[in-house]
Amino acid sequence: xxxxxxxxxxxxxxxxxxxxxxxxxxxxxxxxxxxxxxxxxxxxxxxxxxxxxxxxxxxxxxxxxxxxxxxxxxxxxxxxxxxxxxxxxxxxxxxxxxxxxxxxxxxxxxxxxxxxxxxxxxxxxxxxxxxxxxxxxxxxxxxxxxxxxxxxxxxxxxxxxxxxxxxxxxxxxxxxxxxxxxxxxxxxxxxxxxxxxxxxxxxxxxxxxxxxxxxxxxxxxxxxxxxxxxxxxxxxxxxxxxxxxxxxxxxxxx
Length: 254
Prior knowledge:
- The chain is mainly α.
- Helix content is about 55%, strand content about 10%.
- It has helices at about 10-25, 45-50, 50-60, 65, 75-90, 110-120, 125-145, 150-165, 170-180, 185-190, 195-205, 205-215, 245-250; strands spanning about 30-35, 40, 70, 220-225, 230-235, 250-254.
- The chain has a three-stranded mixed sheet. A three-stranded antiparallel sheet has the order 5-4-6.
- The longest helix has 21 residues, at about 125-145.
- The N and C termini lie far apart (about 80 Å).
- About 30% of the residues are buried.
C-alpha cells in the first residue's frame, strides 16, 4: 500500500525539498562552483538546466567541462550561494545569512534582490531575474507598511546599484525602481526634496532622466490665484512654491 499523502500535497514543494537535500548531502555531485575562498559541490544536470552560462561552461568545449570546476571569482559569494540555492528550489532567501561567513557584504533586502537580478542576467538565469524583481517590490512594500520614511530612504540608497548593475537595454528593474519612487506622495516628497536626492541624481544621471520622462506627462503649468505667478505642478504638489498657499484652493489652469 502506498503511503498516505499529506492533506495539502504540493509536488513542486516536494521536488524543491528533495533537490535541497541533494545539494546539502553532495550525493551525486559532479561539479564545483567556486567564489573566492568558498566552493560548493553541485549537480551539473540541475545547474546547467537553470543557467545558460553554466550549461556552456560545463557542457561545452571549455576547460571547466573537463576539470568540472567553475570559478565565479568576480562575484559576491553571498549572491552566488543564493543563486545556487535558486537552481535547486526556485527560490532564495533575501534576509541576511547570519550563520554564513560568505554573506559579509549584505546591506539590505533591496540591495540583495538588486544583486540577484544582476547575477541572474549575467549567468542567463531568466527566471531568477523575474523572481528577484518580485522580491524587490515585495521588500519595499513590506517596509512601507512599517516605516514609509525609512522605506523611501532605503529605495534611494539602492538606486546606484540598480543602475550600475544593469545595462541600459534592461528596463525591468529600472522601471520598477521609478514606479516605486513615484508610488506614493509620501515617498516622492520625502525623498526628492533632500540634499541626498540632489547628490543621487548627479551620481546617477540615467535615473534622473528616467524620472523626468515618467513625470513629464503629468506635469502642467498653473498659476496661483493668490500671487498670480505661474509654476510647474504635479499631482504631488501641495502648496504654491512662491507664496506657500494651498494648491487646492488657489491654483487654476494657466
